[in-house]
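User: Can you recover a sequence for this backbone? Please restate the input before giving your answer.

Assistant: Of course. Working from this structure:
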């Protein structure tokens, strides 16, 4: 384990890594394992080091899920981390300088202050699935609301989504509110 890095897992499956702003590695240190779809690490160079000019060779990759890296530039927020069954696993507070690496399950956020997040993820952008509490049901029962770029999904888009399943869609999760 790396100091100032929290691993959030569920039944042995990695869901997220939180890298606290206090981290200051003295040598090159990768936060994610070498076989993960998103490689995140600190590369440490002494003054005067030069990186030769280079290009990256094309590599064909197949991705079934989207991972995200979020850097809190300013402010404070709370993140909810969910497993793939959409059960709440962890709630953590993030502050300026913290880095959140989302590698599995789902997530949701609450801004505790005016907040700026820098988000890095694989493209292209796809529709989102918002998961909202179903007030008529039990507190942990959720209904889905689809949107694409901030507008509601049309019925034909929704049917196409149902045929494809949820692959490639980003899921947003909100903590259930108590029934009133």
């Amino acid at each position: 384990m790396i100091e100032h890095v929290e691993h959030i897992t569920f039944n042995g499956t990695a869901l997220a890594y939180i890298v606290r702003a206090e981290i200051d590695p003295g040598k090159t240190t990768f936060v994610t394992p070498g076989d993960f779809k998103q490689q995140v690490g600190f590369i440490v160079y002494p003054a005067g080091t030069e990186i030769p000019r280079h290009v990256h060779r094309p590599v064909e990759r197949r991705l079934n899920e989207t991972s995200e890296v979020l850097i809190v530039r300013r402010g404070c927020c709370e993140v909810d981390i969910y497993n793939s069954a959409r059960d709440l696993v962890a709630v953590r507070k993030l502050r300026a300088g913290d880095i959140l690496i989302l590698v599995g399950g789902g997530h949701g956020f609450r801004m505790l202050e005016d907040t700026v997040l820098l988000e890095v993820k694989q493209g292209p952008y796809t529709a989102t699935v918002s998961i909202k509490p179903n007030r008529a049901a039990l507190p942990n029962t959720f209904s889905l609301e689809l949107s694409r770029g901030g507008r509601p999904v049309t019925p034909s888009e929704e049917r196409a989504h149902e045929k494809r399943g949820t692959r490639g869609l980003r899921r947003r999760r909100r903590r259930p509110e108590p029934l009133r």
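That completes the design. The first strand starts at residue 5 and ends at 10.
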